[in-house]
Amino acid sequence: MVHVEGTTGVTELAISKSDALPGAETGCWSGLQSSAVLADLREGLFRFIALVVAAVFVYRGARHLVIDPGRLNILLLMISDVLTFTWLLLARRPIVRDWSPFTVFISVTAAFGSGFVSFQDGIAVIPLYIAAPLQFLALWLVIWGKMSLGRSFAILPANRGVVTGGAYRFVRHPIYAGYLAGHILFLLSSFSLYNFAVYAIITLFQVHRILREERILALTEEYRDYLGRVRYRLCPGIF
Questions:
Q1: May I ask the CATH architecture of the domain 27-229?
Q2: What are the pLDDT digits (tens) for 206-220?
Q3: What is the per-residue pLDDT across 110-128, written as a single tens digit (0 to 9) for each?
Q4: From the CB of residue 128, how many other CB atoms can be counted at a distance below 10 Å?
Q5: Of the four listed, 43, 69, 88, 183, which is most buried by Cβ atoms within 10 Å?
């Protein structure tokens, strides 16, 4: 996720003209940014929508678990989404956030797109007794990354300061790496062309989200130094 920590202020600061991201704050969005009350309403609405999406996903998963309690891969997906929402509620306000409509759409879809995944039994490319323990390890990578961030977690690309310790010593986006591994393992344990298409879209959107986050964070010298120390985003030696 966004590598951020260290700010406790409640006012979101604007990026200077020379450093601004194209489309990050324009038009009516920029006007909303200038009002603290409207900014709070916007933040509250965003978190409420995230709650609704997460609740629907957990409800769907719970129904399938009642029918088939052995579907541990579904349970692990539900835990991952509940943790995402919990960290979002506890997150501190950012220094800079990308509120461009396109980025909002991409980021929310990437974060909660797993809600479109079908829980119907698919083809077990690898057996569940192998996939589920590995998926559990991927979930712990997500948890480790979020614990490293503390209250600096975010859905939208943002800067709440720079975090370089914990899981971030090894890759620049350990939470995304855990998500990706968990998605692949769920897909392999319950494969369908529909789920493959959903996860392919989610992965493409996550890559876009990663690049936007890094563009915001790279405006700080501290993060540019971090980029020189930790070369890979998701998987050492690959990407």
A1: Up-down Bundle (1.20)
A2: 999 899 889 988 988
A3: 877 777 888 888 899 999 9
A4: 17
A5: 183
